[in-house]
Design goal:
Layout lengths: L5 H17 L4 E2 H8 L7 H13 L9 E2 L17 H10 L10 H6 L2
Parallel strand pairs: 1-2
């Protein structure tokens, strides 16, 4: 398989997260890594692009759905100290992700 840029990976992960949000499910870093073919420790920079996109567009933080297996909470890189995780997760579940304009690689690049 050809290598993907971090923005292409971000878009790929975003699509996975939209489907999990629609199904009202979280997923572990390990599960996400398996789905997209990356080691779980290699997901952070791709998730960071998505978190930045959500902040920029005033969207719920879709990356909150990716959690550590043991704790059931996002990794330490997620700004959880400034938000109510349960409330934010519910916002992600309720948001109509499939009705918004599709995310593009160019949009992610512009936010870097």
């Amino acid at each position: 398989m050809p290598e993907m840029t971090t923005y292409e990976r971000g878009l790929q992960i975003y699509q996975v997260l939209m489907s999990f949000a629609y199904q009202r499910h979280t997923l572990t870093y390990a599960t996400l890594g398996k789905l997209v073919g990356l080691p779980q420790h290699g997901l952070a920079r791709h998730l960071d692009h998505l978190l930045r996109y959500c902040k920029n567009q005033n969207l719920p933080p879709i990356t909150i759905l990716v959690v550590r297996k043991a704790e059931g909470t996002p990794s330490t890189g997620f700004p959880s100290e400034t938000m109510d995780l349960d409330q934010e997760r519910e916002r992600v579940f309720e948001y109509p992700w499939f009705r918004q304009k599709p995310l593009t690689i160019e949009t992610l690049k512009a936010l870097s």
